[in-house]
Amino acid sequence: MEVGAMVIAVTGVVGTLGGALLTQRGSARAKRREMELLHRHDAVRESEALRRSCYVELNRDARQFTTALNRHLHVMREGAVEDVDRDALEAAKDAHRDRYSEAQMIAPDEVLARARLVNRALYQLYGQVKRLERGAPAPGETVGTAARAKDEVWELIAAMRVAMRQDLGVSDGSLSA
Question: How many CA atoms within 13 Å lie on the side-chain side of 118?
């Protein structure tokens, strides 16, 4: 009898300790899964915040570069371009270049394709404006053709902005500008 009682007692103790150990391991595993899920959620939110910030700045800097090109064209029509005018244009170009470089590392392919079109159009327009400023335009380049090219840049910026808003989930793309 004593051996049977002892076996029952030992089995009870082992069962109690084993149950507690299994419960603890299950709880630790559930906590680990919960922490991993939380980290993934935080990473997604951080990535979205980084893209949003980059998009806001890229949109702003592309618009400012276009505006600076437009101002430069107006100054050229009215008279001599001064160093302060050149400096303002260069600062806008540099800001856009920096933001576009950041977008190349952050933006998904659809947004980057639109940003690339804007970047290319801005630099083509910049080249045209600078050639006009130097008095050495390429064949067919005039202040008028530069002004029309500037209008096309605005359309490309609007399309880029739509792609950015779609990526961030704030638009379904049905609005165009």
Answer: 34
Residue 137's nearest CA partner among 147, 146, 150, 128 is: 128
Q: What is the pTM assigned to this prediction? A: 0.76
Whether residue 80 contacts residue 115, with contact meaning beta carbons closer than 8 Å, is answered with no
Rounded to whole angstroms, how far apart are CA atoms 119 and 60?
Answer: 13
Give the span between the Cα atoms of 172 and 177, in whole angstroms. 12
pLDDT band of residue 95 (cuts 50, 70, 90) is very high
The letter for the amino acid at 60 is R
Q: Work out whether the CA dihedral 76, 82, 84, 87 comes out positive or negative.
A: positive
CA quadruple 19, 20, 26, 27: dihedral positive or negative?
A: positive
Half-sphere exposure of 54 (CA within 13 A, CB side): 25
**Which tokens in the block code for residue 54?**
């980059």
For residues 59 and 160, the answer to whether their CB atoms sit within 8 Å is: yes
pLDDT band at 162; cut points 50, 70, 90: very high
